[in-house]
Design goal:
The complex is a heterotrimer of chains A (371), B (94) and C (266). With 371 residues, chain A is of the alpha/beta class. Chain A folds into 2 domains: 179 residues, Thiamin diphosphate (ThDP)-binding fold, Pyr/PP domains (Rossmann fold, 3-Layer(aba) Sandwich); 111 residues, Rossmann fold (3-Layer(aba) Sandwich), CATH 3.40.50. Helix content of chain A is 38%, strand content 18%. Chain A is globular and about 70 Å long. Chain A starts with a helix and ends with a helix. The model of chain A has no long low-confidence stretch (mean pLDDT 96). With 94 residues, chain B is of the alpha+beta class. The longest helix of chain B has 17 residues. The N terminus of chain B is likely disordered. In chain C, helix 1 packs across helix 6. Chain C is built from 10 helices and 8 strands. Chain C has 266 residues and is α/β, with parallel strands linked by helices. Chain C has a single domain, classed as Rossmann fold. The mean pLDDT of chain C is 95. The radius of gyration of chain C is 18 Å and the shape is globular. An 8-stranded mixed β-sheet of chain C has the order 2-1-3-4-6-5-8-7, sandwiched between helices. The chains are: A alpha/beta (371), B alpha+beta (94), C alpha/beta (266). At the A-C interface, strand 1, helix 3, helix 4 and strand 7 of A face strand 2, helix 2, helix 4 and helix 10 of C. Strand 7 of chain A pairs parallel with strand 2 of chain C, so a sheet runs across the interface.
């Protein structure tokens, strides 16, 4: 199955019943699948007039209770940023898939790059936290899309699935579990109608009143209090809002963060990476071990919020961390911030950006570092 | 000045109705000072000219209208329809 | 009063602003039809018109980013077609930054009621020129006079295929309530442009700083559509043509989706 198709199937399995899209390479196949799978489930596929309309419609649909998703690539992702911020501040669950392509600007639509990592974290204006997941396989395009919906429902936040053109277009075997075996999380909805319950700014996640159920909920992108009423005069109100929304994510980092580690216990050199680069890294680490080098592998499955403690722990006593990214250095700076004193960080992009690292190139770097 | 024909008809009908209904059910104008913003639309559009800006300020610092000749009110409700602030309305009191 | 959130009052429009008249007309239409506010969703954008339903109407209200209420509303309506979704927008929010969403929603004939309050200026941000400002008018960003021609919004929206199109001004309260009532009752994309006074940002520039002066100007410059059809361009220059420009039936989008659901379920 193709990665993009697996992503669509994951969304459907998670309960997604609303998908708004504007055509862009290399995300198109996600939309094709959704347009085929949704109607018989009474789900809506709509092709909007641009990416801004797509994310807008997704947010509107989410407020009626629908699990809603959109998919795009770099240029569309840039357009969506304003409303991603709106979804953050209104605590609207939704999923945005960004199948990264080579950029900036129009770039090369059919080549992979990992250039949107910092943008996924900070793309919208203002101060906020957001959850970003990075699939490394077709299987993960399925499972992490399900995860993305679960996290967005649990924490009432937009979640970004940051794939790239390789993961989106490649084909691999996928094991699709029985629906009953999947863990699906739904947002909490207040039990009693009426304006009594405070629908916003709870660090433990407020229940979400839905439109059309008599809650008379007021949703606004302006600075608001926990009842949703606008306050644009007092700095205290924006202080409360910014902190509460950030803490909602930060306080739960242990439940949100996901990494994969292999052979890190006695590793002297660790290769740290995410997304499609992880496939090369995994091979290179295994080969290095075969050469007798004490190499370890750390794969970030969640990129943001960056799990500092978990990553520092995984690095352990290793003397060197080689960070593989298909860009000029984005996640590496987070690693540099938390690197233990006894260790150092090296950044290793592919010899040619917008291609996968050559496995031997990575292997050479590992062996050189151990020597 | 060209008058909107609809408005003229409205005025005439209301005045007629007021005369026909006699003195048993006279319309009264009520002003909600806490909503009024002193824009004077009601003052300017009253066809019988019975509203004038008041002398004192409301609690919000605006000059709300006062009714100078309530007997002349025909109950046309133009003041009510044109008020942007839900601050003036007409009631029928027997 | 039963339609208003008490704690949100008093509302923040400038004294004399036409927004309050639009709000009143709308609530009268709701009252006349006996509609249940809990089955309504109000979506509004950024700008003075955005403050008509938000936060004042006692119902579900969604105050979106600038220019996007029609797009957000489309998502709401498609997801819960049984809700009555009404968009309040302005000339900048709806026809400049939001223009693309407006014409596509009209093309789709999605059952949204779009009430566009046109004060011919960007009021909230300081009186900048708008795509509906008449040519030659001085604004804060056209200090030498506006060089551009304004939109004819009914024509634009009709060109996009809207099935109900009307234009009134804030002086035409009776006709406005009637149009709003019709829009609320029917199914399909319904668009009403309401020319409204902005005494502070527009009126002051043209010697009509008092709201009643602007409203009298609307009254004296309005020409009913039927009469305008027999008049030449020179006679119509600077006039507001008011009336119902379009009113016909066409397949509505959520109904088309329902057909698709039934066909694929089989």
């Amino acid at each position: 199955m193709q990665g993009n198709e697996a992503c669509a199937r994951g969304a459907i399995a998670a309960g997604c019943r609303f998908f708004a899209f504007y055509p862009i390479t290399p995300a198109g196949e996600i939309a094709e699948q959704m347009s085929r799978l949704l109607p018989k489930l009474r789900g809506t596929y709509i092709q909007m007039e641009d990416e801004i309309a797509s994310i807008s419609a997704v947010i509107g649909a989410s407020w009626t209770g629908a699990k809603a998703m959109t998919a795009t690539s770099g240029p569309g992702f840039s357009l969506m940023q304003e409303n991603i911020g709106f979804a953050v501040v209104t605590e609207t669950p939704c999923v945005i898939v960004n199948v990264q392509r080579a950029g900036p600007s129009t770039g090369i639509p059919s080549l992979p790059m990992q250039g949107d990592v910092v943008q996924a974290r900070h793309g919208s204006h203002g101060e906020y936290e957001i959850i970003v997941l990075a699939p490394s396989s077709v299987q993960e395009m399925f499972t992490l899309t399900v995860e993305a919906f679960n996290l967005s429902e649990r924490y009432r936040t937009p979640v970004i699935v940051l794939a790239d053109e390789i993961i989106g277009h490649m084909r691999e075997d996928v094991a699709i579990p029985e629906q009953s075996h999947l863990k699906i999380i739904d947002r909490k909805i207040p039990k009693t109608p009426g304006e009594a319950a405070a629908p916003f700014l709870d660090e433990e996640v407020a229940p979400m009143p839905l439109f059309g159920m008599g809650y008379s909920v007021h949703v606004t992108g302006s600075c608001h209090d926990k009842f949703g009423y606008r306050n644009v005069t007092d700095p205290e109100s924006i202080d409360q809002l910014v902190r509460a929304l950030a803490n909602k994510i930060r306080k739960h980092i242990d439940q949100i963060a996901r990494i994969e580690t292999r052979c890190t216990e006695d590793a002297e050199v660790i290769v740290l990476t995410y997304g499609s680069c992880a496939r090369v890294a995994q091979y290179a680490v295994e080969e290095a071990r075969r050469h007798g080098a004490k190499a370890g592998f750390v794969r970030l499955i969640s990129l943001w919020p960056f799990a500092r403690e978990i990553v520092a722990e995984a690095i352990g006593d290793a003397k060197k961390v080689i960070v593989l990214e298909n860009n000029l250095g984005q996640i590496v700076h987070e690693v540099e911030r938390i690197i233990p004193a006894h260790s150092e960080v090296a950044f290793l992009p592919p010899e040619i950006i917008a291609t996968l690292h050559r496995p031997d190139y990575v292997l050479e770097s590992i062996l050189k570092a151990v020597a | 000045m060209i008058h909107d024909s609809g408005q003229r008809v409205l005025r005439a009908t209301c005045h007629q109705r007021a005369i026909e209904s006699g003195a048993t059910e006279m319309p009264k104008v009520r002003v909600n000072e806490s909503f009024c913003k002193g824009c004077k639309i009601c003052v300017e559009f009253c066809p019988m000219n019975i509203l004038k800006p008041g002398k004192d300020l409301t609690i919000r610092g605006f000059v709300s209208p006062i009714i100078v000749d309530e007997a002349k009110c025909t109950g046309c409700r133009i003041c009510e329809f044109y008020c942007p602030d839900f601050a003036i309305y007409v009631v029928k009191e027997g | 009063m039963k339609y208003i959130r008490e704690r949100a009052l008093p509302h923040t429009h400038c004294p004399g602003c036409g927004n309050g008249i639009v709000a009143q007309c709308f609530l009268r239409a709701i009252d006349r039809l006996g509609l249940d506010m809990s089955r309504m969703v109000f979506v509004s954008g950024i700008g003075c018109s955005g403050w008509i339903p938000s936060p004042f109407f006692k119902a579900d209200t969604l105050h979106t980013t600038h220019g996007r209420p029609v797009a957000f509303a489309s998502g709401v309506k498609l997801s819960r077609p049984e809700l009555n979704v009404v968009v309040f927008t302005g000339d900048g929010d709806g026809a400049a930054i939001g223009g693309n969403h407006l014409i596509h929603a009209a093309r789709r004939n999605i059952d949204l009621k779009v009430l566009l309050v046109n004060n011919m200026i960007y009021g909230m941000t300081g009186g900048e020129v708008a795509p509906t400002t008449p040519k030659g008018i001085r604004t804060t960003t056209t200090p030498f006079g506006n060089l551009e021609r304004p939109f004819d919004l009914p024509r634009l929206v009709m060109g996009a295929g809207a099935t109900y199109v009307a234009r009134w001004t804030t002086i035409h309260v009776g006709q406005l309530v009637a149009s709003m009532t019709k829009a609320l009752r029917r199914r399909g994309f319904s668009f009403i442009e309401i020319i409204s006074q902005c005494p502070v940002r527009y009126g002051r520039n043209v010697g009509m700083a008092e709201p009643e002066k602007m409203m009298r100007w609307f009254r004296d410059s309005s020409i009913p559509l039927a009469k305008a059809r027999g008049m030449g361009d020179k006679q119509l220059k600077g006039k507001f043509i008011v009336g119902e420009f379009a009113d016909f039936e066409a397949p509505e989008l959520t109904e088309e989706y329902e057909k698709l659901f039934k066909a694929t379920a089989a």
